[in-house]
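Hi V.,

You were right to ask for the full record rather than a summary. Here it is.
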Amino acid sequence: MALTKKISNHNFRSFLWHATFLAFAKNFMDVDTIIPAMIVEAGGGAMHIGFLTAIMMGGSSFTQLFFAPYLSNKKYKKSYLLFAINTRVFALLGLGVLLFILTSGQQNYVLWFVFFFITLFSLAGAFANISYVDILGKSVNQDKRKSFFSTIQIISGVIVLSSAFLAKRVLDWKEYPVNYAFMFFIGAILLLIATAGFWNIKEVVPSRLKISGIKAFFNVLKTELKQNKKLGYFLGYINTQGIAISFLPFIILYAKETFNTQSSDTGIFLIYKVVGIVFVSVLVLLGAKKVKYNLLLYSNVFLSLSLVALALFINDGSLVKYIFVLGGIVFSLFTMSMNGLLLEVSGNENRALYTGFAGAGNILPAIFPLIGGAVISQFGFQSFFILFMVIIAMATFFIFKIDCKK
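Predicted structure:
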């Protein structure tokens, strides 16, 4: 069955349903504020934050290299998408139960169980993303993709902004660990509702690409890198600019150690991060047909460098929240530009495969949080900031080479 305009619009609405309720859930499982703050509350330090961020930000995406060969052989991927998203629901419920039954004498082992559930949650997200990108590319017409990404950013931002106040009240309502337990319970319920959008998708175009195994997958990657030069530059871009999304969790620790911030501040940081997301998403949506990807890419590098400058010059804890505004802008721009670029450098038949290739672009983002945690522990935050800026600046070379005109 061919993809018609009617089916495309139907799927567009289904993806928006998922995005809407995912937006409600995001506040209660935010990887930049809620989860790192929980780790700090549990007694974690720089290495714990680094390890956790490596799992959530880069490590999970890196595993797409291994998930892609398996999923590329499947004609239809909706069932695999549903399996993955429900696994994430289970992981959130597990976190909630763990924290709810936690007592003061059980702090020694709680971090191990937290890491287990976060790892399960993150790996399921990586598994889901391959099917998500493949189905989205086949199920929504090309002329609506850029507006789709900016639209879901705005919907997500507005909803997250309004529900952020509820998340803050939950955090303030009880002390650790009960407040975080309720955060994850609410997140799991909302994520479960969001899955209805995926159940409603009409996946009418089958995938025809077949990969016989991991070795064949890497052979195809080697061939594609030779034939499609922009793929290599795309991987270089997400290997460098991609570390920007791991910056805010370290700021949680930085604020705690430097300004002695509390749980109540975490909710404020979340709200200000969302303000940044909404602001830039509105701007991109208004100029969706005029704004070129090149402008978004270069702007994100500049803003990422500005994150460090802002962190270095702040000398008052009440000003830390503004780092999260800028961090939200950086996160939103990177998400929109990376997904958009992936759709542009790939084709309908190899999109799931290219999503797996993108995992190769997460080698540095996967290990950078570990390196960052070690650098902070040994040399302090200033050395970490310098390392961050050097790697981010390298992204300009790959942007220049990609030279995306769209």
